[in-house]
Amino acid sequence: MNALETKSVIKTYQSDSGVISAVDDVSLNVASGEFVALVGPSGSGKTTMLSILAALLKPTSGQVLIDGVDLSSLDDFQRVNMRREKIGFTFQANNLVPYLSAVENVELMLRLNNKLDKAGKLRARELLARLGLGERLNNYPGQMSGGQQQRVAIARALIHNPSLVLADEPTASLDTERAYQVVETFASLIHEQNRAGIMVTHDLRMCEFVDRVLIMEDGKLTKILKDRADIRKLSSARN
Amino acid sequence: MKKMSIAAYLAVKEIWKFRGRFLLVSLVIGLITLLVLFIAALGEGLGNGNREYLSKLDGELIVYQAKSDFLIPASRLDLNRFSEIKNVEGISDVGLLGTANSQLLLSGDDNFLKTALLGVEPGHVGEPKVIEGSQLSAADADEVILDRNVILRSNIQLGDTITIRVTQGTEDQVFTLKVVGITDGQQYALQPSLFVPFFTWDRIRPKSQAEINFSDPVANVFIVKVDQPENVEIIRDRIEEKIENVETATRKEAIQALPGYSAQQSTLNTQGGFTLFIGILVIGGFFQIQVLQKISQIGVLKAIGSANSVVAWASIIQITLITMIGVAIGAGLTFLFSLFFPPQVPIVFNGTTTAIAIIALLLIGPLGGLVSIRYAVRIEPLKALGLSS
Ligand SMILES: Nc1ncnc2c1ncn2[C@@H]1O[C@H](COP(=O)(O)OP(=O)(O)O)[C@@H](O)[C@H]1O
Ligand SMILES: [Mg+2]
């Protein structure tokens, strides 16, 4: 069974100039242990698609299944539970709760799931150490660089053993070197822990670390690159 | 329960991390508390200074001259009516009361204390009980019972002879009186009181030229103690029916009718109310600005799976804590300040009034925060992705 499956997802918006199809008939699968990039030009529907996968936005039509559960069958309360238990998130900016330290931000996910025990605390620290933040456990977001904050967010997205990990532009505020480091660690954790990962990015170079690249244009899924050679060609092209 | 504990955790963590900012709001609430408590204490003190003697009276009814609007100084009752009222059935005691002002001379040049000079009947209702010394002995003795507020503001003692100065006709006159007793607080018309026997009072009170020549003593009001307090209204009707040209008031009505009393109390209550209202606006403004700055952060909390109730409770707990800290600071400041207030400032901290003020102050937080809590609950988790639906 795929961790994530969508069938003919459509999201339209009504505007003055007519109907906008932000997402237009997208069907895709992501398996556990697979790290996928969602790329495309600005306005192509990536963020909209991610919001739908995150159970934050309801599609106009079509189905989204997470671990086989159809999101449209859930009420608001169950959708909150789904996000908390089955999904891990990193956002483009302002990811972290500013008044919690790095380790507290990660633990928050366990706290919310009522799973913060000794073992959980230990895992949070190990995960942060793994992401190179062993010395920064008690730092607050305001005391960390963008890259460090992004890595804390990655730890938070993984700590509660979600089925699906969604990352919106995780490298947007990072310099190239940092960006490579962050995505590389992210990819290896997704693979090790056997999660299904989707990363939205406009930076094609980051595709070097993913297993598949989904390319969106005008709301449509126009191309899927699976072959390593094709992916490498895409990621090394100048953009 | 679990949601509550997460909410409390988030609320406390945030307060602690940004304690400087939150302390500032608490301090503002503390100052508002200080102001509200002082206004309440001033209201209590001024009110008390005005009504203290009347409110401690052992009688239930005050008899005035008809059409005097329950104004004690405007009422004149002669002694004929006094003998008539004694015969009204159901009355256990009745006493005369004459009110005037006098200057109590203190040692030092032209040093004096303004006092209320009250004429009462020894052994009858209206004469306050002494806590030290003895009651007045005879209807025309040169004796005086002092309100303890006189003692607090002078170095006069039991057994001393005091001198008072009044104006009679066009002349200043001085009289000496022996201090035979001291009562608890018995202020009248915002002044400490001197209680003298009624006929002594009639002799030494301030008089116009006409009054000097007119020798029949006249009281301002009679104070009536009834046999059975539950029959007050019946007795009241009976007095007004049997005695010509009088009107009666209960103690409460008499207090309300004291010159300026109601106006003063309602002015102070309005001031207190306004201060509370300003408090609501300050707290409301602060938390509203705060929530506007936290939109994406609250969006993230919701996106990663915090229930709306967690966000709402975190706000409520936070606002309540900040208000409580502020009120505690304010109460502490009030206590400190009250230690340094001179006795002339009429400030009285009454338990009930203070408790009501504190409860009102604790409510301004949640009331002020209502809008921001509502706003926080309505923030969409999509905001975490920089989107709106
Ligand atoms: N709330 C909305 N109302 C109207 N149009 C929207 C809304 N959200 C997104 N769109 C439109 O949908 C399209 C896809 O947007 P988006 O998903 O943000 O693209 P991307 O993330 O790839 O840049 C754009 O044309 C955008 O203008
Ligand atoms: Mg986008």
UniProtKB/TrEMBL annotation, chain A:
<keyword id="KW-0067">ATP-binding</keyword>
<keyword id="KW-0813">Transport</keyword>
<dbReference type="InterPro" id="IPR015854">
    <property type="entry name" value="ABC_transpr_LolD-like"/>
</dbReference>
<dbReference type="InterPro" id="IPR017871">
    <property type="entry name" value="ABC_transporter-like_CS"/>
</dbReference>
<dbReference type="GO" id="GO:0022857">
    <property type="term" value="F:transmembrane transporter activity"/>
</dbReference>
<dbReference type="GO" id="GO:0016887">
    <property type="term" value="F:ATP hydrolysis activity"/>
</dbReference>
<keyword id="KW-0449">Lipoprotein</keyword>
<dbReference type="GO" id="GO:0098796">
    <property type="term" value="C:membrane protein complex"/>
</dbReference>
<dbReference type="InterPro" id="IPR027417">
    <property type="entry name" value="P-loop_NTPase"/>
</dbReference>
<comment type="similarity">
    <text>Belongs to the ABC transporter superfamily. HrtA family.</text>
</comment>
<comment type="subunit">
    <text>The complex is composed of two ATP-binding proteins (HrtA), two transmembrane proteins (HrtB) and a solute-binding protein.</text>
</comment>
<dbReference type="Pfam" id="PF00005">
    <property type="entry name" value="ABC_tran"/>
</dbReference>
<feature type="domain" description="ABC transporter">
    <location>
        <begin position="4"/>
        <end position="237"/>
    </location>
</feature>
<dbReference type="GO" id="GO:0005886">
    <property type="term" value="C:plasma membrane"/>
</dbReference>
<keyword id="KW-1003">Cell membrane</keyword>
<dbReference type="InterPro" id="IPR003439">
    <property type="entry name" value="ABC_transporter-like_ATP-bd"/>
</dbReference>
<comment type="function">
    <text>Part of the ABC transporter complex hrt involved in hemin import. Responsible for energy coupling to the transport system.</text>
</comment>
<keyword id="KW-0547">Nucleotide-binding</keyword>
<protein>
    <recommendedName>
        <fullName>Putative hemin import ATP-binding protein HrtA</fullName>
    </recommendedName>
</protein>
<dbReference type="InterPro" id="IPR003593">
    <property type="entry name" value="AAA+_ATPase"/>
</dbReference>
<dbReference type="InterPro" id="IPR017911">
    <property type="entry name" value="MacB-like_ATP-bd"/>
</dbReference>
<keyword id="KW-0472">Membrane</keyword>
Automatic annotation (TrEMBL), chain B:
<dbReference type="Pfam" id="PF12704">
    <property type="entry name" value="MacB_PCD"/>
</dbReference>
<keyword id="KW-1133">Transmembrane helix</keyword>
<protein>
    <submittedName>
        <fullName>ABC-type transport system</fullName>
    </submittedName>
</protein>
<dbReference type="GO" id="GO:0005886">
    <property type="term" value="C:plasma membrane"/>
</dbReference>
<dbReference type="Pfam" id="PF02687">
    <property type="entry name" value="FtsX"/>
</dbReference>
<keyword id="KW-1003">Cell membrane</keyword>
<keyword id="KW-0812">Transmembrane</keyword>
<keyword id="KW-0472">Membrane</keyword>
<feature type="transmembrane region" description="Helical">
    <location>
        <begin position="21"/>
        <end position="42"/>
    </location>
</feature>
<dbReference type="InterPro" id="IPR003838">
    <property type="entry name" value="ABC3_permease_C"/>
</dbReference>
<feature type="transmembrane region" description="Helical">
    <location>
        <begin position="272"/>
        <end position="289"/>
    </location>
</feature>
<dbReference type="InterPro" id="IPR051125">
    <property type="entry name" value="ABC-4/HrtB_transporter"/>
</dbReference>
<dbReference type="InterPro" id="IPR025857">
    <property type="entry name" value="MacB_PCD"/>
</dbReference>
<feature type="transmembrane region" description="Helical">
    <location>
        <begin position="310"/>
        <end position="341"/>
    </location>
</feature>
<keyword id="KW-0813">Transport</keyword>
<feature type="transmembrane region" description="Helical">
    <location>
        <begin position="347"/>
        <end position="373"/>
    </location>
</feature>
<feature type="domain" description="MacB-like periplasmic core">
    <location>
        <begin position="25"/>
        <end position="241"/>
    </location>
</feature>
<feature type="domain" description="ABC3 transporter permease C-terminal">
    <location>
        <begin position="273"/>
        <end position="381"/>
    </location>
</feature>
